[in-house]
Amino acid sequence: MRRLPVYFLLDTSGSMHGEPIQALNNALTTMINTLRTDAQALDSLWVSIITFDREIKELVPLTELPSFQLPEITCPQSGPTHTGKALEVLESKFNIEVKKGSATQKGDWKPLLFLFTDGKPSDLQLYRQMIPKIKALNFGAIVCCAAGNLADDSLLKELTNDVVHLDSADNTTLRQFFKWVSETIEQGNKSQGTGEKVALPPPPSEITVVI
Amino acid sequence: MSEIKQYIQTLLAQKNISVAKNRESIFEEFTKEEANIFAVNQIKDNQKMMLDKWVLKNRVSDIIDQQLIIPNATVGKPYEVYIDYSKAGMDDLAYTSFDDLGQFGLEYNEQLGTIKGIPTKSGEFKISMKFRVNGENEDSELNNKKVSLIINADPKSLWKNIPSDLDKDEIWKNVNYWKPDIDYDFKPLGDKHIVVASKRGRSHANVGSFRDDDFSFKHLEETGWSIVCVADGAGSASLSRLGSKLACEFVISYFEENFNSDIVTELDSLIKNRDQSQDDVKQKNLDLFIYNNLGKAAFFVHKGLQDYANKLERPLKDLHSTLIFALFKKYDFGYAILSFGVGDCPIGLVNKDLTEIQLMNWLDVGEFGGGTRFITMPEIFSSNKFPTRFGFKVVEDFSYLMLMTDGIYDPKFVVEANLEKIECWSAFLEDLHGDNESNIKVELIAKNENLPIQLSEWMDFWSSGNHDDRTLAIVF
Fold it and tell me: Under a CB-based contact definition with an 8 Å cutoff, are residues A109 and A188 in contact?
């Protein structure tokens, strides 16, 4: 059977402390519960959660949705945002976990990447070094979500065309965002021409698409 | 010094009371008085009891706060897990029970530490683990820990089957290029028969969208050639249902119009001569003929789709579809089979005594699932692999010529390499003949009037993660 691998890179740096991290936990729980009732997702979705602050943690390795359990995501009270290092970890996980098609192996659906951040990379040089490498992995879609006024949309734009901006990381906004993420995931397993990207569904009004 | 004396001394010291030198003997007496010994012992016992109680209480709270992971269950799927308490750092549990598991169809075995059963209800639940730790009295009240238990729904129960034309009229159908969710046919084809069924996949049925697969076939009476086509519209293209339908129609119309007697006479003679000698030049001529004529047919389809897209003022990629077709004709020495394919749908030719399989085409399989090539992509015609998209075979006879979309090939053959293994085709044939979960038998004989229905029912087979449209055409 074909798997749809979906990677979440979540910013857990100091600025997320307090209400934002709580809202992120709530929104992710709601999203996973929604996906759990989606026939297609339950049958093909595999989810990985990687968090980044000063440290990069693989909170959940790529796991099929039926067995997936979302742990509580926590963050330190302060500290830098190592987005570049997170992309580096992602690249190595991707190379181990994602199955490419061959005459003897069923390939996965094109993986999707969702990066959520409320700041800008503290390790900018590494971040920029990683961009071409991440692009070369050939994700079906890379969606970056910048939340709050400290997030830098233009730096995210260097990684992908699909950057959305949330005015704040509160409960309602994050829930809307992750609802849209789950709709995007549901688009992820369709046959397409080699090299084509997954089409994103129209985002809800809470989300500003950064042009 | 006795423990009692030491205790009283410490007590006095704590209160800043010192025993004067001249009172030491009286103090000595005091510490030996029975009532005082009793009192000290009682205090010590009480203190110990309190300490122990606090340690226990603390431990119980630790256990309540610690995470205990119970693996997720799925409705209808036999479930048996061992709860590894020691891994969770709970080695000191003296007693455990989960009383509310019964409502989910599960049962806890305290001796074995297992939860077992067939879950009946889906959702995310907080269940109570009642427990006692070592050191607690056997009759003490049980402690209560909330543990989460996730029971997934039975994936089969989540799939909906929404007709694509629900509450729609004929005008809507025309405007939206509607096609039936299920289509099948069964007819003689030349001196053989064809049965074909095409079904909308569960992923489409779930959201009420259209079937993207299509098929067509035709026997050209005048020339003796028969054509079978199967096409699979791209899930990501908005009008792919139309693309696959047009592709199948265009193939038939191309051969109807262009496979005239001159061309067929030439082809017949090339095939007959080829059969009589192993001459390289003749073989090359034949290859060239096939390349030219089938290549033209493929390009005719591409061009036809391009024109159609222009007419609709839509980009050609909206009509993305894979396409496979095969032509066969009976000669006095046997059958000649020609084929063309673009995309990930295989054409298999099974010999008369079911001992050999000839895969007529190679598949366009990308490094990721769903990535393939379509007849609508101009680059396939300029690629140096284009000439390899054609197949040719002469056989004395064959048992089955099969064309299928990836909706069948993915679950039944899984990977491309298996398409060249006769054991995989034997298993596939046995599956068709009734060796399957639903015990549905497809009796592939000409006089079986129920054949298309049988094939269509067989196609409902369950395969986790494989919910694409399914089309299978069998010539026999």
Answer: yes
Sign of torsion, CA B264 B270 B271 B276? positive
pTM across the whole model: 0.85
Type of residue at A33: N
Per-residue 3-state assignment (H helix, E strand, C coil) for A85-122: HHHHHHHHHHHHHCCCCECCECCCECCEEEEEECCCCC
B42 is written with which tokens? 């009682």
Spatial distance between the Cα atoms of B364 and B287, rounded to a whole number of angstroms: 22
Residues of chain A predicted below pLDDT 70: 188-197
The pLDDT assigned to B236 comes to: 84
Q: Which domains does chain B have, with CATH numbers?
A: 3-64 (no CATH), 73-154 (2.60.40.10), 159-475 (3.60.40.10)
B332-347 pLDDT, tens per residue?
999 999 999 999 999 9
* B161 Cα to chain A: minimum distance (Å): 12
Q: How far apart are alpha carbons A189 and B236 in whole angstroms?
A: 9
Neighbours of B165 (CB within 10 A): 16
Residue spans of beta strands (DSSP E) within B138-262 = 143-152, 182-189, 192-199, 213-220, 225-233
Which residue type does B443 have? E
Closest CA to B249 of B290, B217, B222: B217
Tell me the angle at which helices B422-432 and B406-413 cross, rounded to the nearest 10 degrees.
110
User: Does the beta-carbon distance from B69 to A138 stay under 8 Å?
Assistant: no
Tell me the residue length of chain A: 211
Tell me what percent of chain B is helix, strand and coil, each rounded to the nearest 5: 40, 25, 35
Place of tokens 């302060």: A78
**DSSP state, residue B237:** S
Chain A residue at shortest CA distance from B158: A39
Instruction: Report how far residue B354's alpha carbon sits from residue B48's, in angstroms, rounded to the nearest whole number.
Output: 84
Tokens of B315: 């980009």
Cross-strand bridge partners of residue B389: none
**Which chain B residue shows the shortest CA-CA distance from A99?**
B368
Task: Give the pLDDT score at A191.
Answer: 58
Residue-level pLDDT at A194: 56
Return the number of other C-beta atoms located less than 10 Å from residue A183's C-beta: 16
Residue B305, H or E segment: helix B280-312
CB contact under 8 A, A101 and B69: no
Identity of the residue in B234, B372, B467 whose CB atom sits nearest the CB atom of A40: B467
| Calpha distance A89→A81 (Å, rounded) | 14
Instruction: In whole angstroms, give the CA distance from residue A164 to residue B132.
Output: 51
- Give me the pLDDT at residue B130, please: 96
CB A41 within 8 A of CB A35: yes
ipTM reported for the complex, 2 dp:
0.86
Which portions of chain B are predicted below pLDDT 50? none
Q: Which of B368, B373, B375, B463 to mutate to test the interface with A (most CBs of A within 10 A)?
A: B368
DSSP per-residue string spanning A52-83: ESSSEEEEEEEEEGGG--PPPP---SS----H
